C-alpha cells in the first residue's frame, strides 16, 4: 500500500466539509479553553486528548457500513435502558441526583449513551415498519422514547431528558408524524404546564424563576445567569481581547471551561466573534442537512436529520442559557466545552453522519 | 403490491420528508436568528449597562487608613503615638466552630477570659464577613508559634496594625482621653456630619479627652486605592491610588514634666490640679487623680475591668478638673473682696469686729467663724490673710446674691470655661431666679451668708477656679484656658496656632494691688498657707480653702481624727507666682485633704518650683504619708481646720 493509498483508505469515509467545520470549532475550543483556564496548558492538552479519542471513535463509526449501524441499534438501546434501570436502583448520588453508575473500573453516565441510542432505536424501528406506518407505530416509537426519558427525568436530570426528548421528537417529526398530533401535543403541553410545574423539583423551579428575574437572587441561584449576561454584554462589538476578559480572569464566571465557555469566548471576542461562531455552526448544521437530504433510505434520513437537529438544539440551548434566554440546564456547547463525554457523543453522531454520507456514495457508484 | 403505487408512495414519501426537512432548516435558522438578535441586544444595545456592571464587578475601592496624628507636649515630648504590632483576627463567616477554634488557639497564643468576653461583644456588634480581633499586641513568640500552625486554622490570620500608645498612661488619661472602636452611635454621628466616607476602613475614633475634641484634626484624610478584585474579593492588582493624609500633630501647652511632677506631688491623694500660664491661658498641667489605664478602653473594655473602675469609690473615671463640682470654700474670698470693692460695699479700710460668729439682724442663729474666738478687728487685707469668715458673711449679705453672681460671673464662675475638652460642667453661681426655678422657693438672706465663704449653693470646678485665678493673676485680663497651642500639618510646614482673644474684667489696678498683697501675705508668716512659700526665692500669692464634705451640727466641733477619711474636708489652694509678674497660676484640690494650707499648698509649691526654677522635687520629700491620716497635723501656720455652720 502506498502512502497515497493509505491516506485514501483512512479518509475514504470522512466528510471534508464536516471535518472543516469541526476543525474550526475545536480550534475555538482549545483557544478559549486556554483563556478560560487562566492559561493552563494542561487543560488544553487534556481537551486535545479528549478530541483525539473522540476522533478515533468517529473514524471507526464513519467506517461502519450502514447495516452494521442498524444492527447495533437494538443492542445499544436495550443496554442503555438496562443501565438506566441500574442507575435508578444502584446509582451513585452526587449533587443530589442519581446519574452515575459505578461499573468497577469507572463511573459512567448512561443517559449520555441514550443521546445516540434513542434516535438510533427509533430510526431503526421506523425503518423496520416503513412500509405500513400507522398511528400505532408512532405510539410505540413514542413509548421507546418516553421510557428512557422518564428514567432520566427521575434521576433527576431534566436538561438531558428534555434534550433526548427533542432528538426523539425530531425522529417522529421527520418520520411524518401527523400535523394534527403535533398540534395536539403543543396544546396539551401548554395546558399541562401548571401540572408539570408542580411536579418539578425545587431547584428546577428555581432555575426557571431565575430566568424570569435573575436579580432576585443575584448571589445565589441567579448568579450564573447574571454573570454570564454581564460577560456577554460587556464583550461589546469586538470583545475585550483574547485573554483579557475581566469576568473570566477575575473568577466571576462559574463553570467557565465547561457549560459557560461561551461566556468567555463572547466576552473576549464580542459580537463579531459570536456571529462567526454562529456561522460555523450554521455551516456544520447545513452540511448535516445536505447529508440528510441525500440520504438513501428511511433509517439514514431519520438518523441524519435527528443528529443534525440535535446538534443545532444543543448549540442553541447552551448559548441561549449563557445569554439569559433559557434556564441554566447544564448543556455543554457542542465541540467547544471542555469534557470528554460530550465530545465523544457528538463525534459519534457526526461519525454516523459521515458513514451515512460516504457509504451510500459508495453504493451509488 | 403494485409497483406503480409503491413508486408513487415512495415519491410522496420523499416529498413529505423534504418538506419536513425544509421546515427543520427554517426552524434552525429561526434559532440562530434568535441568538443573533439576543447578542445584538446584549452586546450593542445594552453594552453600556453591562460594561458598567463588569467594571463594578472588577473594581473595588479600598480605603487606605491614615495614620492618626501625634500628640506632643509644649517641648516636643510625645504624649500619644502609634506603633505597629500584630493582632490575631478571626473571620467568623469562614470558621465553622468558633468556640472550638478559640479553644485550639489558646495553647498557641495566650487568650484570657477577658479576650473571649471582648470577642463575644465584638461578634455581637459585627457585620458579616468582618474580621474580628481575638488578641492584640501579640509577642514575637506568639506570632511565630501561630504562623507555624496557621494551616490548622482557616479563617484565622495575623494582621499588622497600628496601635495607639499613651506613654504616660494613667497620668494623662483625663487629659488625652482615649480612642476606642467605632460603635453604632459614633457611626450615626459621622453620618450626620457627612464624614462616614472619610472613616471607611477606620476602626477607631477619639472617645474622650483631646482625642475626642480634636478628632477631626487627628484623624486625617483617608486615601483610596482602586483595586481590581476577583469574585472572592481578593485584590488582583492596583489600578490607581490616592495617598492618605496623616492626621495633624497636636502640640499641647501642657508641660509633660510639670504634669508628671504634679501627679507625683499628690502622693496618695485624690484630687485635681490645673496650672495655667496667665498671660495667654495656656494650660501647663492638667491633673485629675486617680486616673485609669486608657489602653483598657481602646479595644473595648472587658466587664471585670469596667466594673472595677466604675464601682471604685475613688471614681477614677471621673474627670475632676472638668466635671468635679465642689464648694470653692475660702478660695472665693479674694474674688468676693474684689466684688465688694467694685460695688463699693466695703472700702479697703473699713473694719469689722469679729467675735467669732455672725448673726443676721433679727435672728439668733450664729454663723460661726472657723476661729472660735474670732479675729478681732479685721479690714479687707486682713480678711484675706487670716481668711476671716465673719467678714465675708457680712459682705455677702450686704452685696446681695444677685450682685455677687453678677460680679463673679465676670471671672467665669457659673459657666463653662470653654476649654478644648468635651463634658465640662458649669459649676453653680446661685441667684434668686435660679433658686426659684430649681426649688420653686424664694431666696433667703440666710442662703447668701454661706455663699460669702464659698459654701452653700455655690459650686465650682477646679478648671473654673484655675481660669479665674489666672485672670486675677494677669491683672484682670483673662484668656480662655486651652490645651492645644498649635496644630501642625504632616504634609506641609503649615502650623495653625490657636490663640484666644483676651477677656478684660476691668479690674481697678488699686483693687488688684490690694488683693495681690493680701494673697502674698497669705503665704507669709501669719497667713494661712505659710508652708507654701517657706524658703521660696520668688513671691507666691495664694489663698487656701476648705470645702466641706459633711455638714456639722450647730455647736459640733470638727475633729479630723473622729471623721472617716472620705468624709474629711476637701483642701483647696489657689496661687500664682511670681506675684509681681505672674507666669503661672496653680489651683490644687486635694480631696479629703483636710486643710488647704497643709495639704494642697505644698503640692502647688512643687509645681511652682519646677516651672519657675526648674527644681525637681527630691523623691524622699515628694510622697506625702501613705494614708493621709492626720493631714491637719502637718506643720502649717494655722493648723486648725476651717469650719463653719451649715445654714438653715
Portion of residues within helices of chain A: over 70%
**CATH uppermost class of the largest domain in chain B:** Alpha Beta
Radius of gyration of chain A: 21 Å
**Major sheet details of chain B:** 7 strands, mixed
Reported by name, the CATH topology of the largest domain in chain B is Beta-lactamase
The N- to C-terminal Cα distance of chain A equals 23 Å
Strand content of the residues of chain A, in percent?
under 5%
Structural class of chain B: alpha+beta
The end-to-end distance of chain B, rounded to whole angstroms, is 140 Å
Order of helices and strands of chain A: HHHHEEEHHHHHHHHHHH
Please identify the oligomeric state. heterodimer
Principal-axis shape of chain B:
elongated
Number of strands of chain B: 23
CATH architecture of the largest domain in chain B: 3-Layer(aba) Sandwich
* Poorly predicted spans of chain A: none
Strands of chain A, total number: 3
What would you note in describing this structure?
The complex is a heterodimer of chains A (365) and B (648). Chain A is mainly alpha-helical. Chain A has one domain (15-358). Chain A is 73% helix and 3% strand. Chain A has 15 helices and three strands. Chain A has helices spanning 3-11, 16-36, 41-62, 66-90, 110-128, 135-154, 158-174, 179-191, 193-199, 202-212, 223-235, 246-249, 261-294, 298-322, 340-364, and strands spanning 92-94, 97-102, 107-108. Chain A has a three-stranded antiparallel sheet, with helices on one face. Chain A is globular. In chain A, 49% of the residues are buried. The model of chain A has no long low-confidence stretch (mean pLDDT 88). With 648 residues, chain B is of the alpha+beta class. Chain B folds into two domains: 63-252, Penicillin-binding protein 2a (Domain 2) (Alpha-Beta Complex), CATH 3.90.1310.10; 256-613, DD-peptidase/beta-lactamase superfamily (Beta-lactamase), CATH 3.40.710.10. Chain B is 36% helix and 19% strand. Chain B is built from 22 helices and 23 strands. In chain B, strands 2, 3, 4, 5, 10, 18 and 19 form a seven-stranded mixed sheet that branches. In chain B, helix 10 packs antiparallel against helix 22, helix 14 (333-342) crosses helix 17 and helix 16 (389-399) packs across helix 19 (445-451). The N and C termini of chain B lie far apart (140 Å). The chains are: A mainly alpha (365), B alpha+beta (648). The interface between A and B is large, with 43 and 38 residues.
Amino acid at each position: 500500500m502506498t502512502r497515497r493509498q493509505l491516506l485514501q483508505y483512512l479518509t475514504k469515509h470522512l466528510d471534508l466539509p464536516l471535518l472543516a467545520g469541526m476543525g474550526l470549532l475545536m480550534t475555538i475550543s482549545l483557544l478559549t479553553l486556554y483563556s478560560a483556564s487562566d492559561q493552563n496548558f494542561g487543560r488544553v492538552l487534556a481537551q486535545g486528548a479528549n478530541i483525539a479519542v473522540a476522533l478515533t471513535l468517529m473514524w471507526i463509526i464513519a467506517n461502519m457500513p450502514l447495516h452494521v449501524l442498524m444492527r447495533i441499534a437494538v443492542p445499544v438501546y436495550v443496554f442503555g435502558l438496562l443501565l438506566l434501570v441500574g442507575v435508578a436502583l444502584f446509582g451513585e448520588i452526587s449533587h443530589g441526583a442519581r446519574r452515575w453508575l459505578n461499573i468497577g473500573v469507572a463511573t459512567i453516565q448512561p443517559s449520555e449513551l441514550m443521546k445516540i441510542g434513542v434516535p438510533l432505536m427509533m430510526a431503526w424501528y421506523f425503518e423496520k415498519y416503513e412500509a405500513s406506518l400507522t398511528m400505532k407505530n408512532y405510539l410505540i416509537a413514542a413509548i421507546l422514547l418516553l421510557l428512557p426519558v422518564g428514567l432520566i427525568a427521575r434521576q433527576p436530570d431534566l436538561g438531558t431528558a428534555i434534550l433526548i426528548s427533542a432528538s426523539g421528537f425530531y425522529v417522529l417529526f421527520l418520520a411524518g408524524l401527523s400535523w394534527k398530533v403535533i398540534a395536539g401535543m403543543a396544546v396539551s403541553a401548554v395546558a399541562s404546564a401548571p401540572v408539570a410545574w408542580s411536579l418539578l423539583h425545587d431547584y428546577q423551579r428555581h432555575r426557571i424563576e431565575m430566568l424570569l428575574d435573575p436579580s432576585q437572587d443575584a448571589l445565589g441561584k441567579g448568579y450564573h445567569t447574571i454573570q454570564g449576561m454581564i460577560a456577554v454584554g460587556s464583550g461589546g462589538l469586538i470583545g475585550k481581547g483574547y485573554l483579557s476578559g475581566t469576568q473570566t480572569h477575575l473568577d466571576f464566571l462559574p463553570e467557565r471551561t465547561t457549560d459557560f465557555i461561551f461566556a468567555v469566548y463572547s466576552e473576549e471576542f464580542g459580537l463579531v466573534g459570536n456571529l462567526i461562531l454562529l456561522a460555523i455552526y450554521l455551516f456544520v448544521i447545513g452540511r448535516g442537512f445536505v447529508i440528510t437530504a441525500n440520504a438513501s433510505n428511511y433509517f439514514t434520513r431519520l438518523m441524519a436529520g435527528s443528529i443534525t437537529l440535535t446538534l443545532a438544539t444543543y448549540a442553541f440551548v447552551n448559548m441561549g442559557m449563557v445569554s439569559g434566554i433559557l434556564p441554566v440546564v447544564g448543556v455543554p456547547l457542542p465541540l467547544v466545552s471542555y469534557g470528554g463525554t460530550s465530545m465523544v457523543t457528538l463525534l459519534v453522531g457526526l461519525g454516523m453522519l459521515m458513514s451515512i454520507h460516504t457509504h451510500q456514495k459508495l453504493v451509488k457508484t | 403490491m403494485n409497483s406503480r403505487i409503491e413508486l408513487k408512495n415512495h415519491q410522496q414519501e420523499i416529498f413529505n420528508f423534504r418538506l419536513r426537512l425544509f421546515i427543520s432548516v427554517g426552524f434552525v435558522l429561526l434559532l440562530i436568528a434568535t441568538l443573533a438578535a439576543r447578542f445584538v441586544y446584549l452586546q450593542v444595545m445594552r453594552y453600556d449597562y453591562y460594561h458598567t456592571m463588569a467594571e463594578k464587578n472588577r473594581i473595588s475601592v479600598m480605603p487606605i487608613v491614615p495614620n492618626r496624628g501625634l500628640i506632643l507636649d509644649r517641648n516636643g515630648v510625645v504624649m500619644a503615638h502609634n506603633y505597629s504590632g500584630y493582632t490575631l483576627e478571626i473571620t467568623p463567616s469562614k470558621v465553622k466552630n468558633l468556640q472550638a477554634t478559640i479553644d485550639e488557639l489558646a495553647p498557641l497564643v495566650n487568650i484570657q477570659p477577658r479576650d473571649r468576653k471582648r470577642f463575644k461583644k465584638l461578634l455581637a456588634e459585627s457585620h458579616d464577613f468582618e474580621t474580628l480581633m481575638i488578641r492584640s499586641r501579640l509577642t514575637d513568640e506568639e506570632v511565630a508559634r501561630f504562623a507555624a500552625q496557621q494551616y490548622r486554622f482557616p479563617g484565622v490570620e495575623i494582621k499588622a496594625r497600628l496601635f495607639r500608645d499613651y506613654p504616660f498612661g494613667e497620668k494623662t488619661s483625663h487629659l488625652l482621653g482615649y480612642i476606642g472602636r467605632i460603635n453604632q452611635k459614633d457611626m450615626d454621628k459621622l453620618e450626620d456630619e457627612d464624614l462616614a466616607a472619610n472613616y471607611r476602613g477606620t476602626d477607631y475614633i477619639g472617645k474622650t479627652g483631646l482625642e475626642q475634641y480634636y478628632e477631626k484634626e487627628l484623624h486625617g484624610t483617608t486615601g483610596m486605592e482602586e483595586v481590581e478584585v476577583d469574585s472572592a474579593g481578593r485584590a488582583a492588582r492596583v489600578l490607581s491610588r490616592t495617598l492618605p493624609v496623616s492626621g495633624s500633630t497636636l502640640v499641647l501647652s501642657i508641660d509633660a514634666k510639670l504634669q508628671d511632677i504634679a501627679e507625683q506631688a499628690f502622693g496618695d491623694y485624690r484630687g485635681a490640679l490645673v496650672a495655667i500660664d496667665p498671660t495667654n491661658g495656656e494650660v501647663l498641667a492638667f491633673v485629675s487623680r486617680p486616673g485609669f489605664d486608657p489602653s483598657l478602653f481602646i479595644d473595648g473594655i472587658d466587664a471585670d475591668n469596667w466594673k472595677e473602675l466604675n464601682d471604685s469609690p475613688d471614681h477614677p473615671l471621673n474627670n475632676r478638673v472638668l466635671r468635679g463640682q465642689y464648694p470653692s470654700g475660702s478660695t472665693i474670698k479674694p474674688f468676693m473682696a474684689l466684688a465688694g470693692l467694685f460695688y463699693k460695699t466695703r472700702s479697703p479700710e473699713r473694719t469689722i469686729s469679729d467675735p467669732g460668729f455672725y448673726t443676721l439682724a433679727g435672728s439668733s442663729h450664729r454663723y460661726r467663724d472657723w476661729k472660735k474666738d474670732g479675729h478681732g478687728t479685721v479690714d479687707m487685707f486682713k480678711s484675706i490673710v487670716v481668711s476671716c469668715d465673719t467678714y465675708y458673711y457680712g459682705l455677702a449679705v450686704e452685696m446681695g446674691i444677685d450682685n455677687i453672681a453678677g460680679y463673679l460671673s465676670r471671672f467665669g464662675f457659673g459657666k463653662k470655661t470653654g476649654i478644648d475638652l468635651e463634658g465640662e460642667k458649669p459649676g453653680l453661681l446661685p441667684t434668686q431666679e435660679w433658686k426659684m426655678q430649681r426649688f420653686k422657693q424664694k431666696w433667703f438672706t440666710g442662703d447668701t451668708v454661706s455663699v460669702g465663704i464659698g459654701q452653700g449653693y455655690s459650686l465650682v470646678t477646679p478648671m473654673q477656679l484655675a481660669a479665674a485665678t489666672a485672670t486675677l493673676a494677669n491683672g484682670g485680663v483673662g484668656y480662655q484656658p486651652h490645651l492645644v497651642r498649635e496644630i501642625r500639618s504632616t504634609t506641609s510646614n503649615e502650623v495653625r496656632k490657636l490663640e484666644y482673644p483676651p477677656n478684660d474684667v476691668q479690674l481697678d489696678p488699686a483693687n488688684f494691688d490690694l488683693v495681690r498683697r493680701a494673697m502674698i501675705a497669705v503665704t507669709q508668716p501669719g497667713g494661712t498657707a505659710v508652708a507654701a512659700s517657706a524658703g521660696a526665692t520668688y513671691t507666691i500669692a495664694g489663698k487656701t480653702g476648705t470645702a466641706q464634705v459633711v455638714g456639722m451640727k450647730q455647736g459640733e466641733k470638727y475633729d479630723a481624727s473622729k471623721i472617716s477619711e472620705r468624709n474629711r474636708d476637701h483642701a483647696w489652694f489657689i496661687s500664682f507666682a511670681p506675684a509681681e509678674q505672674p507666669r503661672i497660676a496653680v489651683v490644687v484640690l486635694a480631696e479629703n485633704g483636710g486643710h488647704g494650707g497643709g495639704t494642697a499648698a505644698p503640692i502647688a509649691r512643687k509645681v511652682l518650683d519646677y516651672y519657675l526654677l526648674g527644681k525637681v522635687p527630691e523623691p524622699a520629700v515628694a510622697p506625702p504619708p501613705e494614708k493621709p491620716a492626720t493631714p491637719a497635723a502637718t506643720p502649717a501656720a494655722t493648723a486648725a481646720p476651717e469650719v463653719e455652720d451649715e445654714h438653715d
